[in-house]
Specification:
136 residues; alpha+beta; 3 helices; globular
Length: 136
């Protein structure tokens, strides 16, 4: 599939918007909005290996993470996009995850996301999002 520079710039913009919506929704406890960033059968794989298949499972995991980590911040950078097939794309970026934000116990870890997404008539959606922690 041939993609023009203009199409790639547009795609990059929309991918960073999708990632920002995901980050802001997660950090504000709006887990239904997080799930809306995925296809109906989308898969989220957490850093601990927990695999959430489908939007309901993603919402449930989000609620559990809020209890476990408290106030959170997801900060992402260095977005790289590559075409997998006609309408399927891969996205990778670095992530700094802060937990316990606003408390003396605040801590953070670094990781990266390894994503797959598709272009739909209503915008981009993750089909798979995997969190990979950086080695200690």
């Amino acid at each position: 599939m041939m993609t023009t520079e203009s199409e790639l710039i547009n795609l990059h913009f929309h991918v960073t918007q999708l990632v920002s919506k995901y980050n802001m929704s997660w950090d504000n406890g709006k887990f239904s909005e997080v799930a809306d960033c995925f296809t109906e059968d989308g898969v989220f794989v957490a850093a601990n290996g927990t695999r959430c298949e489908g939007r309901d499972a993603i919402v449930a995991f989000g609620k559990q993470s809020l209890e476990l980590f408290g106030s959170m911040r997801h900060l992402t950078s260095n977005h790289v996009i590559e075409n997998i097939s006609n309408n399927s794309w891969r996205h990778r970026c670095y992530m700094l995850f802060a937990m316990g934000v606003g408390t003396p116990e605040m801590s953070s870890v670094t990781a990266h996301y390894d994503d797959e997404f598709i272009v739909t008539s209503s915008g981009l959606l993750f089909t798979k999002r995997v969190v990979v922690l950086d080695a200690a």
